[in-house]
Amino acid sequence: MSIVELRQYTLHPGARETLIELFEREFVTGQQAVGITLGGRFRDLDDPDRFVWLRAFPDMAHRRRALEAFYTGPVWREHRDTANATMIDSDDVLLLRGPGFTPEPGTSEVLATVCHPTDAADFDTYAARHLGPGHALHRTEHAENDFPRLPVRTGEDVRIWFGPAEPAPWPAQRLRLEPVKPWPRASPGVRPDHGREPGSASELGR
């Protein structure tokens, strides 16, 4: 089980593809280089100005060190202004403990459920009946956020899973998500030809 961030960004109208292109071109390898594991990246099918993604760390200490390395490093310094310009809000972040989640290649839609159970024991009974390993169940990580430069939501206890399941009898947000296709990797110094030049860049934090 890893420390996982589920990050939901509200973007300026029309900026999502700009952010996704920059993210896939620069921020995937930039984060991986400092030890961050990237999970799924998604377009919210019900909100054209929302980008959803996950990243994971072995533990909280690794998270702090990796975030410090990335957000003080050359990739973020070069692209942060363009990235931040795509965003209205990047603070909708849940800190979780779970297996992480990346959709299978070729998946066209993923259903994610963010559930707020009122009783942990009752939820465990529900999960035993209706959720399997493929649902990649995550729970709130209640450790203090020791990288306050990037806020996380606090004061709530959530369960998150991926894929269809019997509706839970507690308040829940259901997200219909389209996986982002990975950016083709070219040889060093050669930019993949997507038939158009990228627009202004985009981003992921602060």
TrEMBL record:
Chain ranges of the NIPSNAP domain: 4-94
Chain spans, region Disordered: 181-206
Gene3D superfamilies in UniProt: 3.30.70.100
Pfam families to which the protein is assigned, alphabetical: NIPSNAP
UniProt protein name: NIPSNAP family protein
